[in-house]
Amino acid sequence: MTEKFWQPAGMEFDAYWIMDGPESVGNEFYGAGFNATLRDLGRFGLMMLNQGEANGIQVLSEDWVEASTVSDPGYERISEDASIGYQYQWWTFPDREAYSAIGIYNQFVYIDPQSQTVIVKLSHTPDAQGWEDDTLAFFEKISQLTP
């Protein structure tokens, strides 16, 4: 990941995965455990906003960016009454182009291509879930502001 993605994208600091055992035998685990600085997460969001391009380099293919972030006929909501869905590690919205990476305990990279907005929020909540609706509504309002 460092050679193929992180360095070509121009990230400032090393990122890392939390491992499930000692360094010599541990493995990354899916669904959680990725750590990066706020500024590098912002750079990541800008790269996604720019269709996978960072610093003049096409780091991710435009096709993958679109397939991973655009709700399509295969769009599935996370539950019957949910306002968001999940596709390729991104939370997607059926009524707008915005999408978001959402980490446990209130970590966000929110991208709205229509307004050219990237928001990164790092924080901590006592409960792992239950905060998405208010935070995402706030991000949507911010992205609708005009300078």
TrEMBL record:
InterPro entries linked: Beta-lactam-related (IPR001466), Beta-lactam/transpept-like (IPR012338), Diverse_Enzym_Activities (IPR050789)
Any one GO molecular-function label of the UniProt entry: hydrolase activity
Keyword Hydrolase: yes
Name of the featured protein: Serine hydrolase
Ribosomal protein among keywords: no
Pfam families, per database record: Beta-lactamase
Domain of life: Bacteria
Keywords: Hydrolase
Domain Beta-lactamase-related, first and last residues per copy: 21-128
Lineage, highest ranks first: Bacteria, Pseudomonadati, Pseudomonadota, Gammaproteobacteria, Oceanospirillales
